[in-house]
Design goal:
Layout lengths: L3 E3 L8 E3 L5 E6 L5 E2 L14 E5 L6 H5 L31 E3 L1 H7 L4 E5 L9 H15 L3 E5 L3 H13 L2 E7 L4 H8 L4 E5 L3 H14 L3 E3 L5 H6 L2 H10 L7 E5 L4 H15 L9 E7 L4 H8 L24 H11 L3 E4 L1 H15 L5 H15 L9 E5 L8 H4 L12 H6 L4
Parallel strand pairs: 7-15, 8-9, 8-11, 9-10, 12-13, 12-15, 13-14
Antiparallel strand pairs: 1-2, 3-4, 3-5, 6-7
Helix pairs in contact: 2-12, 3-4, 4-5, 8-9, 9-11, 10-11, 12-13
Length: 425
């Protein structure tokens, strides 16, 4: 069957047939009620969050491997038009899965991999989710791509809109890292700094989404489609491991959507027979200065209490994470945990990954590596199990985090004798 709905341009538009691949409906994550595909994100029955429901056609390893070296090789598993490859987009994905033997040796682990998503076009995993949101937004009739952001999403939305030839509107906290402000503004869209936290920014965006019906706020009114882009991380990890699931993964938690969608990806691959079903454990990583999900996990609560963020890991600084309760469900079901680390540990995590594997992560990556080490020390994570950690962004975006603790070993006059005299030989 083919789902139908009105386009987003006006509520008076006639019903239009949509091409969103295998997507067939939107389903409530709380009560299970379904609604037609469209620009909706809250259940009409219980106001719970919506996600995409599918009727998958035939998908094989061979058909995926014959696809492009981007997330569009998985288009048969995503809510995107069949013609998505023909449209102008950043073509994210295909990022390396790096065998981290040096880091594993230092931590006493048997097999460790780093999924390095800093290799995406704007150097974070957000290019994945934005590409899917953009593809769906075009099909739904939106004319402007917009978002509230802690930084990486701002970069991705501004760049994707520029490539697509449409307007972007991006809202960010005024105290965001300067590197992320510059790397958003350079694309020429409308960038607005808002005084307050990300949650304040998100509230403003939600209000604007109600006033501008032709604006696609990727993580608000087209969030169900946007969130599905994170599944491609799970798809790629399984394919890069030779079509099998890792035994453990450690994933940074901001809204929590990335963690829950990687879990969804593993489940879909198994249900379609693309990988052998096998147990895996999922661990979440937060910075102590914004760790509402970790706090709820440790207290045994099902409700996540909002907090006011105070951490150098600004890309994870979401005090009221939308997917927080679903993160708790996922880690508990898989036998994982959610842990948090201090800002000092975040900096050390950045330096450890850089020193051992030559990967310069932003603060979110520092959170993940530091959490990995903390989980190992506490005996919560099995050092003998094959483990994948996710680096979701590039360290050049958060230089201030390490600028005060790294630098030249010495400053010397321009001579070899001076080098020797400084004891550097």
């Amino acid at each position: 069957m083919t789902a139908t709905t009105a386009t987003a341009a006006t509520t008076a538009d006639p019903v239009t047939t949509l091409d969103l691949g295998p997507a067939r409906a939107l389903a409530c994550r709380e009560c299970g009620a379904t609604s037609p595909l469209g620009p909706h994100y809250a259940c009409a029955e219980c106001f719970g969050p919506l996600e995409v429901a599918y009727e998958f056609g035939p998908v094989t390893r061979e058909s995926i491997e014959a696809g492009p070296r981007s997330i569009w090789r998985y288009r048969g598993l995503l809510p995107v038009p069949s013609t998505v490859q023909e449209t102008r987009n950043l073509e994210p994905g295909g990022t390396p899965l790096v065998r981290a033997d040096n880091l594993a040796r230092e931590l006493g682990m048997r097999a460790l991999w780093v999924k390095d998503d800093s290799a995406n076009p704007t150097h974070s995993f957000k290019d994945r989710v934005v590409a899917v949101a953009l593809a769906a937004a075009r099909e739904l009739g939106f004319s402007t791509l917009a978002c509230p952001s802690t930084g990486n999403l701002a970069n991705a939305v501004a760049a994707a809109a520029a490539r697509a030839g449409i307007r972007s509107v991006v809202l960010i906290p005024a105290d965001l890292e300067q590197q992320k402000i510059v790397t958003t503004a350079v694309y020429g869209g409308t960038l607005v700094a808002v005084e307050g936290t990300y949650d304040d920014v998100n509230r403003v965006a939600s209000e604007l989404a109600g006033e501008h019906e032709d604006w696609a706020f990727v993580n608000v009114n087209v969030r169900p489609y946007y969130a599905e882009g994170s599944k491609t991380l799970g798809f790629e990890v399984a394919e890069q491991l030779g079509w099998r699931l890792p035994q453990q993964v450690v994933i940074p938690v901001a809204s929590g959507s990335q963690l829950t969608k990687v879990d969804k990806a593993f489940g879909e691959l198994a249900s379609l027979g693309l990988v052998e079903e096998s147990p895996y454990r999922i661990f979440g990583a937060q910075a102590t200065g914004c760790s509402p999900v970790a706090a709820a996990f440790k207290a045994g609560h099902d409700v996540v209490r909002p907090v006011r963020p105070s951490t150098i890991a600004k890309s994870l600084a979401i005090g009221n994470p939308a997917d927080g309760p679903y993160v708790l469900d996922t880690v508990r079901r898989t036998g994982g945990a959610v842990e948090d680390v201090s800002d000092d540990e975040v900096v050390e995590g950045i330096r450890l990954l850089a020193r051992t594997e030559g990967i310069f992560a932003e603060t979110a990556g520092g959170v993940t590596v530091a959490t990995l080490r903390k989980l190992l020390a506490a005996g919560q994570l099995d050092p003998a199990a094959e483990t994948v950690v996710f680096n979701t962004g590039e360290g050049l975006k958060t230089l201030d985090a390490v600028a005060g603790v790294v630098g030249p070993a010495a400053t010397i006059p321009a001579s070899a004798d001076a080098f020797t005299a400084a004891g550097l030989a």
